[in-house]
Write a structure and sequence with these properties.
Layout (H helix, E strand, L loop, with lengths): L1 E5 L2 E8 L2 E6 L5 H20 L10 H11 L4 H14 L9 H14 L4 H20 L26 H10 L8 H8 L9 H4 L2
Antiparallel strand pairs: 1-2, 2-3
Helix pairs in contact: 2-3, 3-5
Length: 202
């Protein structure tokens, strides 16, 4: 690698894999030409070794488009992007933070009544796309990799109370003896929900 001055402008010449590369630095200043030449060298190294190129200024909308085209998305991802893009679309992916995710949660709740579970699914989709960006070399790390999600409320499963159980057994002419073993025997006549006339709607 060397610099040669031609017509008052420094030119950079170097060989890589037996191929001669030349480029004008566009300047007559030696020190500036050396900095430009170093950049030229780095570009050749990147091209030769296929190193990833970070793109921290890429808008999320552009990243989402690339993900849809190249990231083997599922219908789930497409559906979530419809609500993610209005908020994140114009934001550079290098600007994402956990605080931004918190603001998104507040934004979603301000638009309509939602469960934390729904917003958690949104953010999980966003985090997945950012991991894909890391794999593609567009981001050095995923800023949401350790993001904590809100606790989700567990749905209560309906269970018959003892009085309701007695009424159900009586309605079908079954013995309603208070002895646990008899009650267990009666209930075993309906091994599954579909076998019970009331539960199955028969």
């Amino acid at each position: 690698m060397s610099l040669w001055k031609r017509g008052g402008v420094w030119w950079s010449y170097m060989y890589r894999d037996g191929i001669r590369h030349s480029r004008s630095t566009g300047t007559g200043n030696r020190r500036e030409a050396e900095r430009i030449e170093q950049k030229f060298k780095d570009e050749l190294n990147t091209a030769t070794h296929q190193l990833p190129r970070l793109d921290l200024q890429m808008p999320f909308a552009v990243l989402a488009g690339r993900f849809l085209a190249e990231g083997a998305p599922k219908p789930y991802h497409r559906g979530r992007l419809k609500v993610l893009l209005p908020f994140f679309g114009e934001i550079a992916i290098g600007s994402f933070t956990k605080n931004l995710a918190i603001r998104y949660r507040q934004y979603r709740h301000s638009k309509r009544t939602l469960t934390e579970t729904t917003v958690n699914r949104d953010l999980e989709c966003l985090r997945h796309i950012l991991f894909w960006a890391v794999d593609e070399g567009l981001l050095p790390t995923n800023p949401l990799s350790r993001m904590r999600l809100e606790r989700e409320r567990k749905k209560k499963r309906p269970v018959l109370s003892l009085p309701e159980e007695e009424l159900l057994l009586t309605a079908f002419g079954l013995s309603s003896s208070p002895a646990p073993k008899h009650r267990k025997g009666n209930l075993e006549k309906f091994p599954s929900r579909g076998d019970c006339p009331i539960c199955s709607g028969k």
